[in-house]
Every structure is written in structure tokens, then in C-alpha cells.
Amino acid sequence: MDKRLLDYLQRILNARVYDVAIETPLEIAEKLSGRLENRVWLKREDTQPVHSFKLRGAYNKMVHLSPSELARGVICASAGNHAQGVALSARHLGCQAVVVMPVTTPELKSDAVRALGGQVVLYGDSYSDAYEHALTLQKQSDFVFVHPFDDPDVIAGQGTVGMEILRQHQHPIHAVFVAIGGGGLISGVAAYIKAVRPEIKVVGVQMIDSDAMLQAVRAGNPVPLSDVGLFSDGTAVKRVSDETFRLTQELVDDFVTVDTDAVCAAIKDAFEDTRSILEPAGAMGIAGMKQYVSQHHLRGEELVAITCGANMNFDRLRFVAERAEVGDQREALFAVTIPETRGSFKRLCETIGGRNVTEFSYRISDHREAQVLVGLAIADRGEAATIRDALAQQRFAALDLVDDDLSKEHLRYMVGGRSPRSENERLYRFEFPERPGALMRFLSRMHPDWNISLFHYRNQGADYGRILVGIQVPNDDLPVFDNFLASLGYPYVDETENPVYHLFLR
């Protein structure tokens, strides 16, 4: 065995982590296993006292400091999870902790550091910015710097995750999937696994817009990224360290890059199996595993994903829920062009059939054609092509938007606006029971004698669906129209005189 690898094995075996950390469970993910046709295990580092593995490395480093060093206090830079590990370790060891965090850090994480007794300094847009500022502060003071990944004791502390996996699962394992930011976790895990059971593959997972380690491996040395994506703030590192690069280059078998939608889908996967909500970095291992399974056509294998963190801001869940279905290829999004003639809207609904509609948006704008944004729940990506073919058979042009970021991030929220063709328009909000096919049943009951000029619906996961409908009704027909509304049997509110409607839609 390589001497340096042996040294890390000894460090990991002798690491001091369990004064503050727990041995986290290795749990089977039943639903995900069934979907992927492999046995999927989740190493639940999100169940640590600070909801992240970072506690292991931070404490292992700090517990090895001398009494005089602890008396000086410690300083670190962190996007959040290492900060909590340092703060909790400092409280346990009775020393002062100063933590520099990017201003983009979720408030949940900075508040948690303060609650643990750490002094928070916010600086920069990424971990790397905070790191440079922490070094400046460290030079101006006498604090001991606790690095989140570029330290053998930190790496060894994280390596205890790998030690636990092999102790908890003594049967064959095909691969272990590990999120990479600075590389401390994968370095420690890979060091232990390759020293003890080298046949097990270690696969690194990076965000497609924060892939500093993969870029380093390709270049043969660490290279700084000019910018990093911030969705997965826990892995937003511009440059990996020389030591984590060396270990990763030597020991990691393969790499996978994942995008935001895939991570959102993985957060949902984890919730469905564990009822826990992972942060983006914590779900990257699952996202990478799913992609790896698809690329390599794996079946019947034992796979482990490390769920390395669960410090998620609640308000970010809105974004995650929106993108999860697209990321897991369970929602198809189309821009459909139909003739602006009576009956076209109903014919479009009939073509869609009994599929579960997730979104429906339309605003009258042209005499000849109508543009409709349609979201549909699908079982797999192949079903989107089937739907597109069915629309084409009805001579409805359909543009697949599932990979179009402009549509997913902005345009789906912007369909509407003023229309010169909205004469005699009346605006109504309706509620109906939210169940498969309910929206289509609602649409099929709309009276054909009045033209639909605006329609907006988005499935929000509630018990009742809410739609906004603009209907052009001549004044002479209003008594008959009122009878029609009553016959629908749905609760409704007349918004025709709402001043917001007149400001933005009339």
C-alpha cells in the first residue's frame, strides 16, 4: 500500500469525531431502488447534530490543537456547514470561533452558527471570496485557521464516513457517490475505501457550473474558476486544494456533473424515501447516481449515495418544487400553436386527453393563431415525443421547452399582458377539486358560445386547483352567462372590476 494512503488510513482509524458526531445510518431507499432497478443506500449525514458531515472534520482538526492554540481561538471560512461544525466544536472545546461566510449563504446556516456561539462575518459572493477575507483577518489576529478541506486532519475526519459505510455494509458495493466542493469529503472517503476495499468504485459528483475538481483533473493541476453557480452553495468552490486534488486524482474512479433540475429532482427523491429535505449539495450524490445508472445501464447493483447535508432555507423549496418534475423528466412543457378559431381550444384539450395537466397558460393576442403554454405530467422523457406527435396529427405545432431555461425560469410566469382583442372580456377565478383529469373536465364544460381570451392554471400541489379565466361575453348574453356559471358547480369570484386586472391585463 502507498505510504501516503497508509498514513490516511491510520489517521481515519484514529480520528476523534464521536465526541460530537454520531454514526449515521445507512438506509435503503426503497422507492428509488425500485425506480432505478438497483439497491440504493443512503448514507444519512444529514442526520448529524448540525445536519451535515462537516462536523467530523472540523472537530477532528480542533481536538488536535494544543491548549495554547485553542486559547487563541479559531477562524474559518465556510458557505455554512463547515461553519456550524466549527462553531459546535468550539463550544464543546471551550474556545472562541470566528466564521467568515459569503453574503449569499442561506440565512438558516448563518443563524445556526450564531446560535452555536460563533461570530459571523459576511463577505463576498462565494466560499472562495470568504476564504480570502478570512485569511486576511487571520493575519490581523492570532486566531488558528481551520480549513474546511485542505488539511489532513479534516480529510481524515471526513474519511470516517467511508469507514462507517464499509462497516455497515459488508457485502459487495458497486459504487459510492460523493458530492464534491473543495474535495475534503471525497478525499477522505476515497482514501479509506481504496485502502480497505479497492474494488469499490468512488464516483465524484459536481454541479455543472461549479466543477473545479473536474477541471483540475482534466488540467492536471488545480485551476481557479472565474465564477461558480450558487444554487448548491455548499459546493460553490472556485479552486480545490493541492492535497484534495492529489487524493481525488489518484483515488476517484469517475466523475459526473449534474444540473440544477437534476438536483431538485434528487431532493424530491430523498424526501419521498426519507421524509427529509436535503439541501442541494446534500442531494448531489443521488442526482449523480441516477445519471450514472442511466449512462452505464446498471441493473441489480448495490449503490451508495452520501446525503451530506440538509441545511435548506424554507423559501428555496418553491424553486425546488417547480424544477423537480422537469429535472426528473416527469413534466413535459410545450408551447403549442393553435388556430384562433372557435373549437380549437376544446380540440387541444381533447388531444391532451386524460393526462394530468400541471400548467395551462394562454392570452388572446392575434386574429389568426393562439400560443398556449402547456405543462403535462409524464412517466418518462419518451412520453413527451408521443404527446408532440399527437399534437402534430391535429395540426398543432408544439415546441418542446423542457430544456429551455428561459421558459422554465421566466416566460412560464409571464404569459399574459394586455390585449387589443379583449373586448367584452370578463375575468373569473374558479376553484375545483385537484385530481387527475379535473382541469380537462372543467375545460370540456366551458360553453362553446363564448370565446376564452385568457386562461391561467398552475398545479401547486394543493387540494383545490385555482384557475383564472377570461371569457368574452356580449352584454346581451350576460343573463344566460350567469346561468351557465351557476350550472358549473365550481366556486368562483368575478374579478372583472378588480383594479389590478385593469392595470395589467386590459
UniProtKB/TrEMBL annotation:
Residues 332-403, 426-497 form the ACT-like domain. One of its GO terms (biological process) is isoleucine biosynthetic process. Belongs to the serine/threonine dehydratase family. The lineage of its organism: Bacteria, Pseudomonadati, Planctomycetota, Planctomycetia, Pirellulales. It comes from Novipirellula aureliae. Homotetramer. PROSITE patterns: ACT_LIKE (PS51672), DEHYDRATASE_SER_THR (PS00165). CDD domains: ACT_ThrD-I_1 (cd04906), ACT_ThrD-I_2 (cd04907), Thr-dehyd (cd01562). This is L-threonine dehydratase. It is an enzyme of class 4 (lyase). Its cofactor is pyridoxal 5'-phosphate. One of its GO terms (molecular function) is pyridoxal phosphate binding. Signal peptide: none annotated. It comes from the Bacteria. The gene is ilvA.
